[in-house]
Amino acid sequence: MADDLTGLRDRREGEIVVHTFANGLTVTAEVSWKKDRLRILPLTRLQGALLNYLMREPSRAAGRLVFEPFAGSGAFGFMALALGARRADLLDINPRAQRFHRATAAANGFSPQVARSFTGDLRDFTAAEPYDLILANPPFLPTPGCVTGTLNSNGGPDGNTLLDVLLARLPGLLRPEGEALVILYQLVQGGAPLAARGARTHVPDRPVEFTLLQNRPVAFARYVEAYELQHPRERDGIRRWRDELETAYGPGMTLAHCVMHIGPRGEAPGPVTVRRNVAEKFGSAFVVAEGDPDSLPVDGRRR
Ligand SMILES: C[S@@+](CC[C@H](N)C(=O)[O-])C[C@H]1O[C@@H](n2cnc3c(N)ncnc32)[C@H](O)[C@@H]1O
Predict the structure, then answer these.
(1) Are residues 122 and 211 in the same domain?
(2) Degrees (nearest 5) of the Cα angle 263, 159, 182?
(3) Is the CB of 8 under 6 A from ligand 1?
(4) Which end of the chain has fewer CB atoms within 10 angstroms, the N or the C?
């Protein structure tokens, strides 16, 4: 597609995936089917949307101090460096991530002082100085308490546990004139992602724009059904989780991928907006269509 500048190509070497971008950057990850809770996820079109955004607007990264919490492969931080960022700090709780960060840094000629890798929980992370740009893809799947999920996916009952950790820490992590872009999968009620409700509390003094990446959100009932098919022994717990969410947020919810864009701090409270501007902002190649495997990330195939 003409508006996709990433030029993303993948090469597989056993269980390793090497992503190559049009600007020559290479990022190393692991295959998605690897049965290993510490696996380093390969990129999908969801991360591609944010990567394309950076390639279309390189001035957002050039010269900036960048933080990528929940880094996994560190693709966002490395793309920012390829576009001229001053430094990228990559943080992941998964100890394996550091090995991948080091390999990708070496393959692209970034020194350990420029591509800095940290192992730890975002809750305990101390930044030497606040950042200009935060790029994140937290574990975001709404997950029933009776289902373990994975380190990559489990976002707690409403999907926003780790997002809330990030937002609570934002005042100390982000410079007043800085901005943050976060890839999410959201329960949507009344046309607005749940995170839009909390945004004013967590981010009272910045504009917040949500872009829905999915042209047709998935029914919450379908998502619940997928969990039941995947975890038949946990049916009662899954239904209790469903009932608790519907009591809290009302019936008729849907789910959709979206990007949360938090802008520079202003004197007056910024607006919280929900827009369907994925083609203009991220590129039409990044619209998640109905039936796309990304649209229902829980495996709900009938067995
Ligand atoms: C959805 S994955 C991000 C994948 C990444 N965008 C990539 O393309 O490789 C979420 C990541 O968050 C990490 N994570 C989970 N809980 C965390 C925490 N409390 N602090 C820091 N990282 C965490 C996981 O290990 C996982 O790598």
Answers:
(1) no
(2) 25
(3) no
(4) C
> Do 96 and 201 share a domain, yes or no?
no
Question: Any idea what the Cα angle at residue 87 is, between residues 85 and 90, rounded to 5°?
Answer: 115
Q: 96-130 burial string, b = 16+ CB within 10 Å, else e?
A: ebbebbbbbbeeeebeeeebbbbeeebeebeeeeb
Checking if the pLDDT of 291 tops 80, the result is: no
The amino acid sitting at 24 is G
| Identity of residue 150 | T
Q: Does ligand 1 have an atom closer than 6 angstroms to the CB of 68?
A: no
Q: Is 65 in the pocket of ligand 1 (CB under 6 A)?
A: no
| Segment 104-158, tens digit of pLDDT | 999 999 999 999 999 999 999 999 999 999 999 999 999 999 998 888 999 999 9
Residue pair 72/44 in contact (Cβ under 8 Å)? The answer is no
Structural domain of 189: 180-303
User: Angle, nearest 10°, between helix axes 96-108 and 75-82?
Assistant: 20
